[in-house]
Amino acid sequence: MTQISLRLDDAVKSEAEELFSRLGMSLSTAINVFLRRSIAHRGLPFAVEEEDPFYHPANQAFLKRGLDDWKRGVNFHQHELLPDE
User: Fold this and answer.
1) What are the residue boundaries of the structural domains of the chain, listed by start?
2) Given this model, what pLDDT does residue 63 score?
3) Tens digits of residue pLDDT in 10-32
4) How many CB atoms within 10 Å of residue 23?
5) Is 15 helix (H, G, I), strand (E, B) or coil?
């Protein structure tokens, strides 16, 4: 089994843990659900709007590099996503 390390805002992590706890799962389980749904959809399991500030061009470029690296067999990246504007 693989372990992934990521950086989250403390408030985001806390809110997510509370939400997923109410749904009967851990944050780790929720992330696994997201990944499995992404694989099943062969993409993100929700719509992504260009106007969404979370998807800043720098973040999109990082995601594209990560996908390109993944296709080449590289499987580890560390990046701090830009905050919502």
Assistant:
1) 9-46, 48-85
2) 80
3) 999 999 999 999 999 999 999 99
4) 11
5) helix
| Cβ neighbours of 81 (radius 10 Å) | 16
Task: Tell me what the mean pLDDT of segment 33-37 comes to.
Answer: 94
Which one-letter amino acid corresponds to residue 5?
S
Whether this prediction's pTM lies above 0.70 is answered by no
Give the number of other Cβ atoms within 10 Å of residue 37's Cβ.
Answer: 13
Q: CA-CA distances (angstroms) from residue 74 to 14, 31, 46, 66?
A: 31, 20, 25, 8
Six token digits for residue 43: 């993409």
46 closest CA partner among 57, 36, 37, 33: 37
